[in-house]
Automatic annotation (TrEMBL):
Keywords: Membrane, Signal-anchor, Transmembrane, Transmembrane helix. This is Trichome birefringence-like N-terminal domain-containing protein. One of its GO terms (cellular component) is Golgi apparatus. It is found in: Membrane. Pfam families: PC-Esterase (PF13839), PMR5N (PF14416). Residues 274-558 form the Trichome birefringence-like C-terminal domain. Belongs to the PC-esterase family. TBL subfamily. It comes from Solanum pinnatisectum (tansyleaf nightshade). It is a single-pass membrane protein. InterPro entries: TBL, TBL_C, TBL_N.
Length: 570
């Protein structure tokens, strides 16, 4: 039957609207369906396929459509749908989103138009946007997605009803600005720590680190020493047991350390990526040159590591040899490994203080002193070097140096008492003057490697300190030691030098690695009883090889590339 559409007029308010029952039914059904769609679209993935072709904008502009993207593993039978769940509270949205995952199990950040902005490893990551504030939480272990857990390698572990995490959030003010210049508060959850999540090129660190964009140029202002340890099964640079030049004290594999997880970590800066150490390229750039490590046994640790890395790339190992034929390097002196194919050498000069150890004739006889005003007599062994890596630090913690009584000498005066920090400052100042006067303006590249942190528990190195049960790194920054005061002194001295010096700030990255020391595996034991006795005499200062010093040399390689000096220009 025909329906008449009655005119409505303000002048005829009492006229009735005539609508059929069929029309009312259609209208009511339409309204009911709309309510259902609006309700479930915020709480359930039921309607996700409906919107799968649309996009989502997380910009500050209010016109962004709150929709999700579908994603899948490209060469796998598993297909997951990304979900955006939205809760409306007082007109504000709470957003939780997942991101595109490629076949390697890496999240890809998507821009407004669906372009990939950056990658991040799969982690437990949630983001809530409320009143212009972000809350970021992560565990560093797994990510919960549509009832499935995904491990950090991107593997779907199976359906789980729920996953619980103990997360402590630390609020950090003013680290992300909005497009309108507004400041936002960010809380970064502290989970297992040491691992990270990246969103739109911004790195979210699990232990409360500020958000940093990993878009800095490696050759520019990227701080390669500010980062985290990540698992890397491609490490180490040379197989355990393959390098015969390693001192027995550092060869944990030969000394039958039962675990090998400590060699499977890689240092990852927050703001940029660093190149792996290309041993062939390193040797080619070192062709015809001399590289020398000068310092204490920790620099010997680093020297042996570099020789092993470079030697591993040489096919004929007989063309790499110590020029004096020596095979043990613990005694003080000068050692040089020659790489015949490249006409270059990598040397080590033992000089634990850099300044001179001496004796003083007093009224009651002679006693040992440390000349804070004179360089060690070994300077002639490296004054012609092309690259010199200096260090000093660990011998300044020993009883005699730390006590500082009748030990520090300047000229003919022996200080009755001098604080070790002041003595260290004067010694480093002597070193700096010598470098400025003898190596300043020359072709020599000067590098100073910072303090390597120790991990003695239950006492110092000479009275029962231990680390033999440590099998993984520290993950939370809260457990790290304070920055070494001696390195603060070093900063001040380097700042006043006229010669450019590359400072390798390895203190924090070594502090994480409580698992990397020889501990009781600094030698092999004949019986279990002897090994048990060795628990009271452990090495928690030096490092197993392969191990942490390999990373120092990776950073040395990166630092030389950044310097663009001499053969490292291109």
């Amino acid at each position: 039957m025909d329906l008449k559409k009655l005119p409505f007029s303000d002048s005829s308010p009492r006229r009735k609207v005539v609508v059929s029952g069929f029309g009312l039914g259609v209208a009511a059904s339409f309204i009911f369906v709309c309510i259902l769609l609006l309700n479930y679209s915020f709480k359930s993935p039921f309607v996700t396929p409906v919107f799968s072709g649309l996009s989502y904008s997380d910009n500050n502009n209010s016109n962004g459509t709150l929709i999700s993207w579908p994603f899948s593993f490209s060469n796998a039978s598993v297909s997951l749908s990304s979900k955006a769940s939205h809760n409306v509270e007082n007109g504000n949205f709470s957003v939780q989103e997942t991101k595109k995952i490629d076949e390697s199990g890496i999240f890809s950040n998507l821009g407004e138009k669906g372009e990939i902005l950056g990658n991040t490893h799969v982690l437990n990551f949630s983001e809530k946007v409320k009143n212009e504030s972000f809350l970021v939480q992560e565990s560093g272990i797994v990510k919960k997605t549509h009832g499935s857990e995904i491990d950090r390698n991107g593997t779907v572990l199976g359906n789980q009803d729920s996953t619980k995490y103990n997360v402590t959030s630390t609020y950090i003010e003013d680290v992300v600005g909005s497009s309108g210049g507004d400041r936002k508060k960010v809380a970064v959850g502290e989970g297992k720590g040491g691992l990270s999540v990246e969103k739109n090129g911004v790195l979210f660190q699990s232990d409360g680190e500020l958000l940093i964009k990993r878009d800095k140029d490696f050759y520019g202002d990227c701080d390669v020493y500010d980062g985290e340890w990540v698992r890397d099964d491609t490490k180490p640079y040379y197989p355990p047991g393959s390098c015969p030049i390693i001192d027995r004290d550092f060869d944990c594999h030969l000394n039958k350390r039962p675990d090998d997880e400590y060699i499977k970590w890689r240092w990852q800066p927050y703001a940029c990526d660093i190149p792996s150490l290309n041993a062939t390229d390193f040797l080619e750039r070192l062709r015809g040159q001399k590289l020398v490590f000068v310092g204490d046994s920790l620099n010997r640790n680093m020297w042996e590591s570099l020789v092993c890395i470079l030697r591993h790339s040489i096919r004929d190992k007989k063309r790499v040899y110590e020029i004096s034929g020596r095979h043990e390097f613990k005694k003080k002196g000068f050692y040089a490994f020659r790489f015949e194919d490249y006409n270059c050498s990598v040397d080590f000069v033992s000089s634990p203080f850099l300044v001179r150890q001496s004796t003083f004739k007093g009224k009651n006889g002679s006693f040992e002193t440390l000349r804070l005003d004179l360089m060690d007599k070994t300077t002639s062994m490296y004054s012609d070097a092309d690259i010199v890596i200096f260090n000093t630090g660990h011998w300044w913690t020993h009883e005699k140096t730390s006590r500082g009584e009748d030990y520090y000498q300047e000229g003919n005066h022996v200080h009755g008492r001098l604080k070790v920090l002041e003595a260290y400052k004067r010694a480093i100042s002597t070193w700096a003057r010598w470098v400025d006067q003898n190596l300043g303006g020359s072709r020599t590249q000067i590098i100073f490697r910072g303090y390597s942190v120790t991990h003695f528990r239950g006492g110092p190195w000479n009275s029962g300190g231990q680390c033999h049960k440590e099998t993984e790194p520290i993950f939370k920054k809260a457990y790290l030691a304070k920055y070494p005061s001696k390195m603060k002194v070093l900063h001040h001295v380097l700042h006043n030098m006229t010669t450019p010096v590359i400072y390798m700030n390895i203190s924090k990255l070594t502090d994480y690695r409580k698992d990397g020391h020889p501990s009781i595996y600094r030698k092999e034991y004949e019986t279990v009883e002897v090994q048990m006795a060795g628990v009271h005499s452990q090495d928690c200062s030096h490092w197993c090889l392969p191990g942490v010093p390999d990373t120092w040399n990776e950073l040395l390689y990166a630092s030389l590339l950044k310097s663009r000096k001499g053969s490292w220009k291109n």
